[in-house]
Structure formats: structure tokens, C-alpha cells
Amino acid sequence: MSYQHQYVDGTRIHFALGKVVCIGRNYAEHAKELDNPIPSEPLLFIKPGSCVVPLDGGFKIPEERGSVHYEAEIAVLLGKSLSPQPSEEEVLDAISGFAPALDLTLRDLQAQLKEKGLPWERAKCFDGACVLPPFVVGSTFEDLADIGIRLTINGEVRQDGNSALMLNPIVAMIQHMASQFSLHAGDVILTGTPAGVGPLNVGDELVLELPGVSRFEGRVL
């Protein structure tokens, strides 16, 4: 696999890339903008590790498959496996890093599949559907209820959110995920996207940030 986890300082992380565990509609305003109801319990889905690509050097999108939407999210890297019922302390101890990430969605295909009542993994799990820059170490944030996420495209801020607005806070979210399926070192948690999602186009210049902590530039090739 070409992608490797790394920290901002360039240090490589010595465990294999695992799966990407995601939560949908974790910000009320995002659910509203897509005219979706707020789930009564966490809406979980998984992307395979094979869909992960780095932001550095730019990334490609499958334009021939319809509209590709960006969704900026706070990514959490696990450095330890978790038990099925982890305590808050165990979850915090397992968090190895944080990064701003892009969850990409084939929006036209997703809509078609949803209309037919079919699973929509094909709209979320294509190669390149998760764009990850390097992580900052987990101890960077003392308060996980105050982590910003921002995406700027062609000089215009498109998404500007904060973990304080999450319907399912980070630790409780990971605890719920661990109760549903095994979480291992190398797994990445995508924590949901704030309002402002929209289409990407070839040539778009992106800035992806955890404001005040890490900032990365990339381009749609």
C-alpha cells in the first residue's frame, strides 16, 4: 500500500494502515443542508484502507463518475487497539494523532442508490475517496470538544467547523464504534463534516487546516 501514516514532523508511524471508520450526519447543519434527518443513533460506515491517498502532491477525482463532493473532517488516528467496551481513559490513551481530512463522495451515485434503498458504499469507497495529510500527535489537544476544522478552496472558505458542534463527541463516538466492531492500531476515525459541502473540480487549489495547529495545501489534479 502506497500510503503511510506520518506525523507533521515527518516521523513515520510504525503500524499498518487499517480501515477508515466514518460517522454520517454528525453536524446538524450538514444534515440540514442535504435535507437529511438527524439520526437517532450514530450512523456508521467504513471505508477500506485502499481508498486512502495523501494530500501532498495533489490527488485525482473520478469526474467521469459524476459529481465528486468534498467533506472536510477531523481525522483521529488510533495507535492502540480498543476493547469492545473501552473506558474514556482507554480511548484517550489509544488516540495517536489528529489531522484534517477529506471524505470524498460520489454525490450523484449516492443519491441514485439511496433512492433505490440500496447501500451506498460505492459512492464512498472508491480509490482516492479518503485524502489524508500528516497527523499532529494526540496530546496536541487538551480539549477534544474544541478542535477546529477548515477547508478553503480557491481562496474561499467553504467549511469552518468545530468539534464543539458535533452531535456525537469524539470520545463517546469512538466508544460506540468499538462496541460495534473491532478497532485496531492504524485505524482512522473520520468524525463527520460540518456544513458547506460541495463539488470539487480539476484544478481546484485547497487549503485544509486544523486552525492554529496544522495547515496543508493541495490540488485536484
UniProtKB/TrEMBL annotation:
GO MF term set: acetylpyruvate hydrolase activity; metal ion binding
Matches recorded under InterPro entries: Fumarylacetoacetase-like_C (IPR011234), Fumarylacetoacetase_C_sf (IPR036663)
Recorded superkingdom: Bacteria
SUPFAM superfamilies: FAH
Signal peptide, first to last residue: none
Keywords from the named record: Metal-binding
Coiled-coil blocks: none
Keyword Metal-binding: yes
Domain Fumarylacetoacetase-like C-terminal: 19-220
UniProt xrefs under PANTHER family: ACYLPYRUVASE, ACYLPYRUVASE FAHD1, MITOCHONDRIAL
Sequence similarity: Belongs to the hydratase/decarboxylase family.
Name assigned to this protein: 2-keto-4-pentenoate hydratase/2-oxohepta-3-ene-1,7-dioic acid hydratase (Catechol pathway)
